[in-house]
Design brief:
Number of strands: 24
Shape: globular
Structural class: alpha/beta
Helix content: 40-55%
Length: 620
């Protein structure tokens, strides 16, 4: 409410459902269609959420009207759910009707709250404005001409400065309730901004704009200050869920800028999307990705020089409502490779093999080749087309980090470079590419030394001597971005006294920290910390873990297996490097196999050769 006071002139505010309500609505519908009476529990939770909000926002004298409206809608919802339960059918029409109840109730509650507080609020149901038309079965589009006509008619009669509308919901040209799909509330805002000729579209969400990469995977990701419409479209297509592609189109056609802001951090600058390109990031603007991809390859010598194969392939997929995410074709016309969502893979495989049955049985083309558990990563930037070597940098980084590229695609606009990799390599790929294109060359190294025996001691001495050399050459101005964490026990040196000497050994080096756990529990916690760090390097001394008291056996493979496996230290998506030597190399390999870690979750390096172990050879 306070934020609305900062806007001048006419304002249109679009509201989504309250948090989690849309999911609860869809879950209740699915449960009812399966005749699972737990749908009643979901319904009661929806009721409680809205009643609790009403009673907390409105004083007792103003509750009756709003509670009556909410109860009226809940009665309708309950009747629909009972019908679904009895018919055992959850049709598209029922789904569209049910999923919009959250927005219907939320926008009315907020609108009435504004009226109670004497704000210039006018409540308007967006279903009376936004109209869709059927293009083909299960595919509708907004009828912008009719929608604008309805808006203009309403706007002439409006009598308040601030208009409150629900997002996500609309009606088709037959009067049936429909929804606008994923990101529907933002899309509603974009449609209304377009037909009303708004000066700007502000999207208030839970993040501070669009980021250079997914910040949950790449901790160094930063907010992008500005993007062109096309760049935002590319990033959103390749998995950036802050904004969805349909939201951009209506305002782009009218050259209306979009601002993405953080509801919880309103002072953050966020991201501005417009036809201008003023970002401080000159070439690559962001790295995006889509997980759960399958590659389908149709190939055969009979395809060379024979027209119609591509048309036939794309046509049957279109008729079956299977979306193609990426396409690549060899210039020889010997093969066509497409990327689809993993859940649509089997359906696509079946219809393609059926459609090309005669060609396959006559050896004109081969049976469809399917590769699963893949991901797409994409570099995006308008200015990439004017710079040479971007793709070279990208694939050099991936190759250097042992990330195999399955397929490559680049549009003629050169606005994005796309590569398909294994799903398990996503975290490593995103972090290494982000480091190359967005981060300074100097980064903090997190080194964990587990057990300090003869080799461990020599490693520490080498580190110390090298840093001392840098320090001398720089005139004492070197700042070492390194944290060394030593997991050592009483079996080496003189216990606490030796620990103090180690601290003193490195104490005068700027930027260098040495951390040593006092107990076995601290050591275990330190290892857990290691795996949460960004690309940690763990030096594993022979039998070092056992000597620290938290591995139950002196067998080297159990040293690795117990703390990393049974202690549940490794989580999905972790990536780390293990440096070891001697017999520990094979023992680590054995333990990693026992733990069933996917290839790429860990790099294992033999300190004698400094070469990473070839996982493909190990796993065959």
């Amino acid at each position: 409410m306070k934020r609305l006071h900062k806007y001048k002139g006419n304002i249109i505010v679009i509201f989504s459902a309250f948090g989690g309500v849309t999911d609860l609505l869809m879950e209740s519908g699915k449960l009812a269609s399966n005749q699972d009476k737990n749908y009643v529990k979901k319904f009661n939770l929806i009721k409680k959420i809205h009643f609790d909000i009403c009673t907390s926002l409105f004083d007792i004298n103003n509750q009756s009207q709003i509670l009556s409206y909410v109860q009226q809608n809940l009665n309708i919802l309950e009747s629909i759910l009972e019908g679904i339960y009895n018919l055992k059918e959850f049709s598209n029409k029922s789904s569209a009707t049910i999923s919009g109840f959250g927005e219907l109730m939320s926008h009315y509650i907020i609108g009435k709250l504004g009226e109670v507080r004497n704000l210039e609020f006018q409540i308007k149901d967006s279903r009376e404005i936004i109209t869709t038309k059927l293009i083909k079965i299960n595919n509708s589009q907004v009828d912008f001409k009719l929608t604008k006509k309805k808006w203009d008619s309403f706007f002439k009669e409006k009598n308040k400065r601030i208009i409150i509308m629900p997002g996500f919901i609309a009606r088709d040209n037959f009067g049936n309730d429909v929804t606008l799909g994923r990101g529907g509330s933002d899309y509603t805002a974009s449609i209304i901004a377009s037909v009303s000729g708004a000066n700007k579209l502000d999207i208030w969400t839970d993040v501070s704009g669009m980021f250079t990469a997914n910040p949950t995977i790449v901790k160094q990701a930063i907010s992008i200050d500005s993007l062109s419409y096309q760049e935002a479209m590319e990033l959103s297509h390749f998995g950036a869920k802050v904004i969805f592609p349909p939201t951009i189109q209506p305002v782009m056609n009218k050259n209306i800028p979009i601002s993405i802001k953080n509801t919880f951090k309103p002072d953050d600058s966020g991201t501005e999307i417009s036809n201008k390109n003023n970002s401080r990031f000159n070439i690559v603007k962001g790295i995006s990705h889509i997980q759960g991809i399958s590659l389908l390859t149709l190939e055969g010598s009979g395809m060379i020089g024979s027209p119609g194969y591509s048309k036939k392939l794309f046509e049957i997929l279109s008729v079956s409502n299977i979306n193609i995410i990426m396409i690549t074709q060899a210039s020889s016309e010997h093969s066509i490779c497409i990327g689809v969502k993993g859940e649509e893979c089997e359906k696509a495989k079946k219809i393609i093999n059926e459609e090309f049955y005669n060609e396959i049985t006559n050896n004109i083309i081969k049976p469809l080749k399917v590769e699963r558990h893949l991901a797409i990563i994409a570099l995006v930037g308008d200015k990439m087309k004017n710079h040479q070597g971007i793709s070279g940098k990208m694939f050099s980084v991936l190759g250097y980090n042992n990330i195999n590229v399955k397929a490559i695609s680049q549009g003629a606009s050169e606005r994005n470079i796309t590569a398909v990799i294994k799903k398990k390599d996503v975290k490593k790929a995103l972090n290494t590419l982000h480091e190359k294109f967005f981060e300074k060359n100097i980064k903090q190294l997190n080194l964990f030394i587990t057990g300090v025996g003869n080799v461990g001691k020599k490693l520490l001495e080498q580190i110390f001597n090298q840093i001392a050399k840098w320090n001398y050459m720089s005139g004492g101005k070197v700042n070492v971005p390194m944290v060394i964490r030593l997991i050592i026990g009483k079996g080496w040196g003189q216990g606490p006294q030796h620990s103090q000497s180690l601290h003193a050994w490195f104490a005068h080096i700027p930027g260098l920290k040495v951390v040593m756990p006092a107990t076995a529990a601290d050591a275990k916690g330190l290892l857990k910390t290691a795996l949460r760090m960004e690309d940690p390097v763990i030096f594993l001394e022979h039998k070092g873990l056992y000597r620290q008291g938290y591995a139950s056996t002196p067998e080297p493979n159990k040293d690795f297996l117990v703390p990393f496996g049974k202690a549940n230290l490794v989580q999905e998506g972790d990536y780390f490097t293990i440096v070891t030597w001697g017999a520990m190399v094979q023992k680590c390999i054995d333990a990693i196999k026992i733990l069933n870690l996917e290839i790429g979750e860990a790099d294992l390096i033999d300190i004698r050769t400094l070469n990473p172990i070839d996982w493909e050879t190990i796993y065959g």
